[in-house]
Amino acid sequence: MLRVENVTKYYGNFKALDDLSFDVKEGEIFGLLGVNGAGKTTTFRIIMGLLEKTSGKVTLDDKPIDYSVTDNIGFLTEERSLLTKLTVREQAIYFGTLKGMSEDKILERLDYLLNKFDIMDYKDKKIKELSKGNQQKIQFITAILNEPKLLILDEPFSGLDPFNIELFKDEIMELSKKGSMIIFSSHRMDHVELFCKKLVILVNGKTVLKGNIKDIKEQYRKKNIVLKGNIDIKKIEDIKGVEKIIQKSDDEIEVIISSSDVVDDVFKYVSKCKNVTKFIVEEPSLNDIFISKVGESYEK
User: Fold this and answer.
1) 158 and 245 together in one domain
2) How many domains does the chain have?
3) For residues 96 and 109, is the Cβ–Cβ distance under 8 A?
4) 120 pLDDT band (50/70/90 cuts)?
5) pLDDT at 199
6) Calpha distance 66→101 (Å, rounded)
7) I need a labelling partner for 37 at 20 to 30 A (CA). Which of 95, 188, 230, 242 fits?
8) Which of 71, 75, 103 lies closest to 89 in space, CA to CA?
9) C-alpha distance from residue 237 to each of 45, 231, 232, 256 (Å)
């Protein structure tokens, strides 16, 4: 398990991280979110031992992270970190050697991943000759060559088309199934929702939201139901807890309710109506929640 406990980081008088705590278990994909400058990159660098924290504790399987364990970590940075004059093969050997892998093992793993991502033809091409999307594939491949115990992914889908996003998604899920701990960071909330069950949202280095996405969505649940069909609006208005009805079209309405407890009462009535084609209790998107929490923080 990765544990980040009460980590604070100052750059001079500037507090970049403020008492940050979270943990990531084996096989878990954890979301670390925030706007630019929120403290995500500082967090990544502290986890990998590249930055010294001011206070707090970071451990991997109950051991401090130092050079004795960094061979078990993979990191895909948001910025390109490839040596563009090297070939794909040379790049893989360089990064794999830094992780303590033998050349035979590096090339075996490289061939497997190049085949999986359908770019075997690029093995002896220089990085600078590849498209942005294929460079991103190589960057991802070099991050997972060592089948890391801990994998940090910062904007992993940058420059990828939907087809290749699916390839990345499959490989990330495969690593998770094998037990890798994965920290996933993206500005695309729909991508976060694909993978993560738990998350932290940072604003100016401080945690403004933390927990299971399912519980967070329940907490921020919109109190409205969208209905479509032959429905007597007056009878719905008479249901206790119905606060307002908005006519969206001739046969579609939005019912604003005081709490989720009212859903069952509305459903009992609607189930008796004829030709009802829509009954949706709207759920907030992670994007809605993110904007709400970040906005609240800046208003304080």
Assistant:
1) no
2) 2
3) yes
4) very high
5) 95
6) 18
7) 95
8) 103
9) 55, 11, 9, 10
* pTM tops 0.90: no
CA distance 128 to 62: 41
Residue 287 lies in a domain: no
Q: What number of other Cβ atoms are within 10 A of residue 97's Cβ?
A: 12
Q: What are phi and psi of 134, to 5 degrees?
A: -75, -30
How many whole angstroms separate alpha carbon 252 and alpha carbon 23? 45
Model pLDDT for residues 226-251, shown as the tens digit of each residue: 999 888 889 999 999 999 899 888 88
Say if 86 falls within a structural domain.
yes
**Are residues 181 and 251 located together in one domain of the fold?**
no
Domain that holds residue 248: 222-281
Residue 284 has pLDDT above 80, yes or no: no
Please indicate, yes or no, if residue 288 is contained in any of the structural domains.
no
Confidence of residue 108 (pLDDT cuts 50, 70, 90): very high
Would you tell me the crossing angle of helices 132-144 and 88-98 to the nearest 10 degrees? 30
How does the average pLDDT of the chain come out, rounded?
A: 91
Identify whether residues 65 and 113 lie together within a single domain. yes
**Residue 198 — pLDDT band, cuts 50, 70, 90?**
very high
Within the chain, residue ranges assigned H as helices are: 40-47, 88-98, 103-116, 132-144, 162-177, 189-195, 213-219, 233-237, 263-270, 286-299
- Give the C-alpha separation, 100 to 147, whole Å: 12
**CA 24/CA 41 separation, integer angstroms:** 17
Q: What is the CATH number of the domain that holds 156?
A: 3.40.50.300
pLDDT at residue 297 in the model: 56
> Do both 44 and 166 map to the same domain?
yes
Do residues 258 and 128 share a domain?
no
Distance from C-alpha of 257 to C-alpha of 247, rounded to nearest angstrom = 15
| Cα distances (Å, whole numbers) of residue 11 to 161, 183, 223 | 38, 24, 43
**Does the pLDDT of residue 85 top 90, yes or no?**
yes
